[in-house]
Amino acid sequence: EPVPRLPFYAKSDGKGVYPVSNRETNMERLYLTPGEMIAAYSAAGRGKLNRPTASLLLLGILAGAIIAVAGAATNTAAYGITDTWTIRTVCALLFPFGLGLVVVTGSELFTGNCMLPITLLDGSGTVGQLLRNWALSYLGNILGAGLVAGNAQRRERLGYPRCLAAALTGC
User: Fold this and answer.
1) Are strands 10-12 and 17-19 parallel, antiparallel or unpaired?
2) Pair 76, 158: CB distance under 8 Å
3) Which residues contact 54 (CB under 8 A, 6 or more apart)?
4) Nearest to residue 39, comparing CAs of 7, 4, 3, 5?
5) Per-residue pLDDT averaged across 80-94, rounded?
6) Which residues contact 46 (CB under 8 A, 6 or more apart)?
7) Most confidently modeled of 100-104, 119-123, 155-159?
8) What CA–CA distance (Å, rounded) separates 113 from 152?
9) Residue 40: partners with Cβ closer than 8 Å, 6 or more residues away
10) C-beta separation of 135 from 67 below 8 A
11) Residue 41 pLDDT > 80, yes or no?
């Protein structure tokens, strides 16, 4: 059986396809080409698809909680502001810190895993692994956000009305 030919930006060691850097030929280049980006994401996707169940669920809960706190922070900051433009600006400046924390902590946000089919196209994973990852990260995100919303409702620490999380906790 003939060995499939790999694109110029990828190499294989028999276990998978990995990105190849052209730094040997072009030291000034500080970016990845689109092909190298796909190969790099595919290599990272293999690790995400093979992550243990408990780890994936706990990191999903962490990501959901971080995003819920970021949303609560933007709502709290905008609470007393009446000017629409100012509210949008304040929220646009605060919420990205939550996304940054998700990246820095390495937690599993569902939306970050929506590009994992690239790893399947590379032949490095299965549909079952993909669906498992999506289900566990989504469930973890909902649980993490629900924990934050439930805590905000029970304790009213964030100054919200008592029924803040009615959809999640049944006020």
Assistant:
1) antiparallel
2) yes
3) none
4) 7
5) 87
6) 16, 119, 124, 125
7) 100-104
8) 28
9) 19, 32
10) no
11) yes
Predicted model pTM:
0.71
Distances (CA, A) of 135 to 97, 126, 141: 25, 14, 10
The residue among 138, 149, 155 whose CA lies nearest residue 61 is 138
The CA distance from 46 to 17, in Å, is 10
The answer, yes or no, to whether residue 133 has pLDDT greater than 60, is yes
Question: At a CB cut-off of 8 Å and minimum separation 6, what does 57 contact?
Answer: 136, 139, 140
pLDDT of residue 81: 84
- 3-state SS class at 121: helix
Residue-wise pLDDT for 57-78, tens only, equals 999 999 999 999 998 888 888 8
